[in-house]
Amino acid sequence: MIKAYQSILLVHSHDAGKLSKAVLDIVRTAFLDGHYFSFAIRSCNLCKSCAVDQGKACPTPEKVRPCDQSFGIDVFKTVRSQGLPCGVLQNKEDVQNRYGFVLIE
Known about the structure:
By secondary structure, the chain is an alpha+beta fold. Helix content is about 25%, strand content about 15%.
């Protein structure tokens, strides 16, 4: 599926929620610019506390996108090949590097 796209935008953030919102905003902008088949790949993280994890219905199912692992994307290798930071966290205080992908046809 990924090979069907001409461009893949790699988006970096330290904040999971902001990253999820950003990739959805980018896809919307791409769609409005005529790239109707654009697609975001990113774990959700839109809510502070996941309702699904608590056995409840998702409040925003229309915003849920598949995560990179479901496509077999090796995030560590991909971002490191672009010179971006990505490493295994050693403790809870380490800064997390979060990544999302936007596929644009």
